[in-house]
């Protein structure tokens, strides 16, 4: 019995020690990955953020609005599949700026981001307007998209 307890304690101690070692190990720099993602020496790169705002058009027809939102979501999926959108999502509460949602586009070109946001049916209809800002963030940001489908049970 004592032998079993000592063996379990030894195993437990070794497991904790191993976990601590892995936690403190420095991740090895991966030049190939950094280059493929367009990372600079800090692992960062330029993106463009588009803040969707409340547009000038108000649509009371629920069927029409539903159709526009389906097109909006479909367009986001298309742009994500093409590697153009890195992040997209709505804000969960109203704010004084009337920001409704945001896109982070995988480009440093404001002109290119504007071309892409104009493909959105809700933007075309005037339901959403937008503001465009340059942004600097982790070059690894696009990698989360490949795992998103693994954790989402449903698509909106």
């Amino acid at each position: 019995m004592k032998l079993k307890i000592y063996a379990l304690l030894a195993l437990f101690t070794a497991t904790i020690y191993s976990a601590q070692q892995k936690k403190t190990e420095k991740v090895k720099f991966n030049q190939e990955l950094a280059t493929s993602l367009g990372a600079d020496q800090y692992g960062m790169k330029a993106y463009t953020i588009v803040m969707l705002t409340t547009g000038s058009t108000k649509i009371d027809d629920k069927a029409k609005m539903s159709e526009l939102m389906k097109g909006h979501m479909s367009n986001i999926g298309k742009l994500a599949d093409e590697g153009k959108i890195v992040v997209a999502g709505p804000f969960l509460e109203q704010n004084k700026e009337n920001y409704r949602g945001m896109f982070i586009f995988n480009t440093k070109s404001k002109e290119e981001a504007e071309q892409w946001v104009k493909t959105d049916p809700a933007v075309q209809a005037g339901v959403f307007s937008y503001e465009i800002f340059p942004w600097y963030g982790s070059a690894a940001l696009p990698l989360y998209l490949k795992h998103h489908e693994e954790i989402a049970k449903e698509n909106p």
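The longest strand covers residues 44-54. The CA atoms of residues 19 and 35 lie 30 Å apart.
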